[in-house]
Amino acid sequence: MTDRFHQGVEELQELPVPDQWQEIMARAAHPQPSVISLTEARRARRPRWPLMAAAAVVVTALAIAGAVRLGTESASKVETGPVGPGDEEPASSEPAPTTTTTPSTTTPSTTPTTDPPTTDPNAGAGQVEGGDESQEQGEGEGETSEPPQGTNRPTSDSNGNPIPDVCWQTQFATSSGPDDLPAVQGEAVPDDPRLVLPSEYHFGTFTSDANTQRAVFVVIGPFGGDGGEYLSHPVFGEIWLAGSDADGWLAEFELEVSGQTCWINLSATGLNRDEMVGFLEGLSLAH
Amino acid sequence: MAERAPRPAAAAPHLAPAVAMGRVGRAPSHLGPGDDGLVRLKASYDRVHPRLWRALLAWSGDREVADEAAAEAFAQAARRTDDIRDMDAWVWRSGFRIAAGELHRRSRRAQPAGLPTEVVTDHLAYEQGLTHLDVPEAGLDLLKALSQLTEQQRASIVLRDMAGFSAQEAAAALNTTSTTVRVQAHRGRRKLRELLETDDD
Asked: How many Å separate Cα A64 from the centre of its chain?
């Protein structure tokens, strides 16, 4: 990193830190909503039954309307003829599409349904369960630890940029591996610093972590380090490679597929630099 | 109603610290002097608090958020000392979660019409927080550059490069994977480098 970065870090490290011990003890003894204005406090204490009652009325009304509409459509179907009761599609005079090669683009909602209760101090003291391992972050790019499968992949990254479908469909081939790479080792040994983990390819933007594809070679040990280098590549032009023999490698490059720009990254450890560069040099499109 | 004590200069007007309620120094009812839980908590406080507070400050860009999240994380740990095996890790995780909640709450409050993305609003909240800080020039430049990153990139860099965490430790604190931390840290560093070099020009 630059000197300016380190200088900034040093200055931040020298900032005086408030002694909060007394306040912590007081908070612990008397849990209370920790960051809250009077207006918000009143809002929080306001009874919610009127809102719930109103919501119940709306839901009921919608249910009735839906039932009436379904009944009407049902009658209409019967009248128009050939659609059986088990058919899902309504009868139509338009011909059905003959072939479809495009995979489904079903998109999960990108809008969080609820705020993670664990992250909102307004929820009141005592409700933040930082030690609960089962809680997920729920927002942002931290959601990448549980890869959705199939068509549940995200269609946009955290900045709202679309991830073209072609990025997900792109397949790669390697001429220098994976057969030439270290064989997959046996089961991981806990506490072994060379803990064996599967390597990962990430396609698309970073949120494409959600569509991680497992490679067949292994990664060993933690990844770290800084810096990086740019490698000239016969197919992909330029690949940014960072890491070290001990810490592992991260490679990133952009790829244009069918006029769409895909951002690709892959990480691996357990390889020395020559092996990693050799792997990257042999990487090409499979089609 | 107890008379409110003077507030620390850096505290926000809307905060209501417990010190104002005349409860300074009282341990939770289940924690007495010499209690093992309290001893563990204090030891963790001495080890973690300065680094946690600074990390939260760098991550959120807001002293109020850092104050609130650090204090609340330890306060909540104090209420459940018997249930927490790794106090340090628990406090780190809680501190960042609480700070994230507060930052998002401010983002929603500050969100202007027509700016739908979370990144933009987070950036706004971060920049608003910077106005409260009294930090030397290079530190402020770094915070401004950090404000251009995503939350995950910022958190990964703060924990890896400022708090000295390994990727695994940072991942545990952020409740994510070490791969995520590595990649986000690298991407963030690259962007930071560009931003800080641009500032130099």
From this structure: 38
DSSP B7: P
Under 8 Å CB-to-CB from B182, ≥6 apart: which residues?
Answer: A223, A224, A248, A250, A267, B156, B167
Rounded to a whole number, what is the distance in Å from the CA of B111 to chain A's nearest CA? 16
Interchain CB contact of A72 with B (< 8 Å): no
Q: How far is CA A19 from CA B22, B49, B70, in A?
A: 17, 9, 11
Task: Answer yes or no: are the C-beta atoms of A257 and A163 closer than 8 Å.
Answer: no
Task: Mark yes or no for CB contact B138/A4 under 8 Å.
Answer: yes
Q: Could you say which residues from 99 to 128 on chain B have a Cβ atom under 8 Å away from some Cβ of chain A?
A: 100-102, 104-105, 116-119
pLDDT at A39 over 80: no
Determine the Cα–Cα distance for residues B116 and A139; give it in Å rounded to an integer. 15
pLDDT tens-place string over residues B79-129: 888 888 889 989 998 998 888 888 877 766 655 444 333 444 445 556 655
pLDDT value, residue A89: 31
**Across residues B135-143, what is the average pLDDT?**
84
Helix (H) or strand (E) holding A70: helix A49-80
At what angle are helices B63-79 and A21-29 packed, to 10 degrees? 50
Judged by a CB distance cut-off of 8 A, whether residue B180 touches chain A is yes
Between positions 11 and 30 of B, the ones with CB within 8 A of A are 14-19, 21, 23-29
Cis amide bond preceding A50, omega within 30: no
| Interval A159-204: pLDDT, tens | 556 666 666 666 666 665 444 433 322 222 233 333 233 333 333 3
CA-CA distance, B150 to B175, in Å (whole number)?
A: 16
Best CA proximity match to B22, nearest among B46, B6, B38, B45? B6
What is the secondary structure of B53-102 as a DSSP string? Answer: HHHHHHHHS-HHHHHHHHHHHHHHHHHTGGG-S-HHHHHHHHHHHHHHHH
d(CA B76, CA A265): 39
pTM: 0.50
Tell me the torsion sign for CA atoms B146, B149, B150, B154: negative
